[in-house]
Amino acid sequence: MAKTTSAQMIVPDVWADMVQAKFKGALVLGTLATTDTTLEGRPGDSVNFPKWTALTDAEELDEGTPMTTEQLGTDPGDKAVIKEAGKAVEITDKARLVAFGDPYAETQRQLGVLIARKIDRDLTAAAEAPGAITVDASGSELSWPVFVEGIARFGDEWDPDNMGGVVIHSSQRASLLNDPNFISADKLGTGAVIPRGVIGQIGGVNILVSDRVTTTPGEDGDPTTYNALMVRRGSLGLLYKRRPIVETDRDILARTTVVTTNVHYAAHRLDDEGIVVLRTRGAA
Fold first, then answer.
1. Do 185 and 195 contact (CB within 8 A), yes or no?
2. Cβ of 203: how many Cβ atoms within 10 Å?
3. How far apart are the C-alpha atoms of 166 and 182, rounded to whole Å?
4. CATH 3.90.1690.10 is held by the domain 1-51+75-284
5. pLDDT greater at residue 266 or residue 64
6. Which residues make Cβ contacts (< 8 Å) with residue 75, sequence separation at least 6?
7. How far apart are CA 143 and CA 150, in angstroms?
8. Rounded Cα distance, 118 and 264, in Å
9. Which candidate, 76, 29, 20, 81, places its Cα nearest to that of 266?
10. Does residue 161 sit in helix, strand or coil?
11. Nearest CA among 95, 81, 87 for reference residue 19
């Protein structure tokens, strides 16, 4: 006689799809990063993120004189170590039988969120790696004048259409909502395509919220400082060695099911001039 037990309630492949869907839904900085999966199935525990080298300025030409060719090259860039992140949960049969709600569904949700948050933290660290362009406005709250200082750091390459977005901490949302230059998502107009996670725009650039941005507690009663990130498209790289997978193991003596998920990836800043860190203080 065939029996259905809790062991049949978890199909790893199906769970992996569900966890990955929730993982993608929880990423913030990850949505601004250029993703790559070309390393999947290849050996090695580190990866180089190459960069294009810039061509020299255009030259004046004399009539009839052939132009001199120039080679477009690449810089091998910095090497990033491939990381592994994961989480394990053990669920008893009784917990699933007596729980109010579905512990399996909650496990799926939390696994996806935790993996996404870990990757967002690493992307934040990559964005702020040594050499990052920084606007130190730690004496002010986040506001339009601070954004203007950030815009100036992009020089003549500033173009709102090329910006992936600005990532702020949730504690900065109130001061931004009170800024007259901020346009909330509900006021962007009928038919506007609003990417997931975007709360509005300032200066034509999407604003996203993530508490994975760097915060520094103040000393002696000083307010906390926050690092908002202005990210140009193509400036952050997220390379997957292997996307999140789910594995299970059944302990028939303890009557529990262990569920694990893990992901292998590398995060790196691809364009040193494509990210500006805005360091501001929280509300006094």
1. no
2. 18
3. 12
4. yes
5. 266
6. 50, 51, 52, 53
7. 11
8. 12
9. 81
10. helix
11. 87
Q: 236: closest CA among 26, 1, 31, 5? A: 31
- Could you tell me where the beta strands, DSSP code E, fall in the chain? 34-36, 46-48, 51-52, 74-75, 79-81, 83-92, 133-137, 163-168, 182-184, 198-202, 205-209, 215-216, 225-232, 236-251, 256-269, 275-281
pLDDT tens, residue by residue, 217-254: 877 777 889 999 999 999 998 888 888 888 888 889 99
Question: What DSSP designation does 149 have?
Answer: H
H or E element that contains 147: helix 144-153
In the chain, what percentage of residues exceed pLDDT 90? Answer: 32
Q: How far is CA 222 from CA 54, 139, 206, in A?
A: 43, 10, 30
In the predicted model, is pLDDT for residue 8 greater than 50?
no
Boundaries of every domain in the chain: 1-51+75-284
SS3 category, 27: coil
Distance CA 46, CA 154 (A): 31
From its phi and psi, is residue 89 left (phi > 0), alpha (psi between -120 and 50) or beta?
Answer: beta
User: Token digits for 132?
Assistant: 């990052």
- Name residues whose C-beta falls within 8 Å of residue 188's C-beta, 6 or more positions apart in sequence: 194, 200, 201
pTM (2 d.p.): 0.80
